[in-house]
Amino acid sequence: MNTTPPAKPPQTHAQRALAKLGLLRDIDFCLHLPLRYEDETHMTALRDARHGETVQIEAMVTSCEIQFKGKRQLVVIVVDGDGVEECTLRFFNFYPSHQRTMAVGEQLRIRGEIKKSLLGWSMLHPSFKPAGGELSQVLTAVYPTSAGLPQGYIRKAVWGGLLRAAQRGELAPTAVIAHLPSLADSLELLHHPTPDVSVTELEDKSHPAWQRLKAEELLAQQLSQLQARRERAKMQAHGLSQSDRGVVFELLKVLPFKLTTAQTRVQREIATDLALAKPMNRLLQGDVGSGKTVVAALAAAQCIEAGFQCALMVPTEILAQQHFAKLVGWLEPLLTARGLCVAWLSGTQKAKERREMLAKIESGEAALVVGTHAIIQSKVTFAKLALVVVDEQHRFGVAQRLALIQKTTPLSSDEDIAPTAQGQSNINPHLLMMSATPIPRTLAMSYYADLDVSTIDELPPGRTPIVTKIVAMTKRDEVVRRIVDQLKAGRQVYWVCPLIEESEAVDLVNATETHAALQAALTVALPSAKVELLHSKISTPEKKSIMQAFEKNEVQVLVSTTVIEVGVDVPNATLMVIEHAERFGLAQLHQLRGRVGRGLWPSACVLLYATNESGRLGDAAKARLKAMVDTTDGFEIARRDLDIRGPGEFLGARQSGAQMLRFADLSQPQDQDWLKWAQATAPVLLDTKLDMALRHVERWLPSGASFMGA
User: Fold this and answer.
1) Which of 119, 168, 456, 476: disulfide with 290, CB 3.0–4.6 Å?
2) Three-state SS string across 388-411, please?
């Protein structure tokens, strides 16, 4: 007997195109909303047309020929009903079928933007079809589509999905919003608006039908986040208790500085969470230089004191090395006395060193493990992992964080935690995510609703204010003279470039050329000055050697790409020059600026910019540079960055592919009000109508997706 399941029929081109657009379920088609609308509900006579209007006319073809006037084009002349007014249609992209459809004598229905000149009426690339048939009674929707999928096909597919979903009750209401139309009525209106509906309200999403969709979407997001939080509350973790005289106490004694009030408050919040037998899920945010690393060290100390291991994952090797050096300096003497150590892992380690580190991690000797993505590789086995710390968390995808979380140690037999129905203990590590890009409150309420957020909102004493200057690239020589002044005073300088090689697409001075030019200029002005080049293609040992030389002031000027964006701490460096600053994001500029101002001397950041061919600086670039001059407050920088880029880019979700809000815009006050409504409504629905709540989430979130959830 053949038990082989029947093969699935191959997908058609149209099915593949629809799947590419995410159109799989009927509800997906319902929520695939128009980009814009075309009014095909009435005709306009040419004599009544106005220059620049989009009109629909019916006319007869009197001429159709290919012409070569500078560029090959199809030129069609039509006359409307009275045979007096004529209009010239021009097509630079056309097919043989165009000529057949628009043959002389054919009656056509034509729609496009009409313009009038001394030569008469004309349209460029209008839409057209044979004349006749009834006029549409509703505005014609124009949908987002993919290559090879015509509007006619996608319209039928969307309307079919809408009809089937309505018949099966998939659009049944979840939450009643008295002054808004139902979801079914809202979708019907948005897909088939009548001519009396304001097109402006449809396209700027202010119409009540749009408000219904925004409210429902935000409700689904909040339900999803709240459900995730409640599911996590059912999980169990190792309770990490601490004593009055343990590792945390000893670390606080040996630190060369006193914690700020904000650091102390945040450390207590984290310590309280870690002591509980349920997994912490906390975001620690703070401005550049606010002291997040020491808070993470104290959390690690609490974990180690309780007899478990902590893993710290960071995005780059330079940052890993910086953290490793700090943590070794603080913790290693305390761990050595207990027969423990700090280990580190990276993708470029030599095989022997890597084997040694893996053995120490597996045996439990390495109480703290610092590393890059190498930590989540399958060969890494922890003896008793109980705390995961992820630095610069927005640079890691959800899958990468989960891979590290899943290395949790099983419960020991003497721990009083009940097994699940499958007989496995439902145990998770505590998770602490850190970010130097503060999350504006509205985004934290929305995208991080399933997290607890701790904020370090003050800088340690002694941080010197940083003066930021915007300087045109044409004044580069003046900047070099400023560098000479800093070097003569015994200080050091960063010069950051966006590229390390020539790019045909972008005309930027590369780091190699800049290094050579600075070296030549300084050799004349200050022969003793040493200039080094640091970029991603340099080997790890060489990078480490260069950074150590810079930290010891054996190198005075470091020309670098953005590999020094985070983690680098050289108090003697007082000048940061960022070349082609208009090409950098605002958060990145702020991070780079944070590399200076760490010592006792006045510090400055110079933003070198170049204009385009017309001598202008783009509006977004201008806004970023102005923000850098206006404030050094990371929270204000984050707010402006959100305004400029939008939440998708701000949170890194565009790059990671995470699900974002499709309709709601949290920069709009009305949408913020809907968020508050959704936050108040979600717990009531989950408590009183769980099945309905879960159906609502499923409506908006296909299986396996999440609203930025981990």
Assistant:
1) 456
2) EEECCHHHCCHHHHHHHHCCCCCC
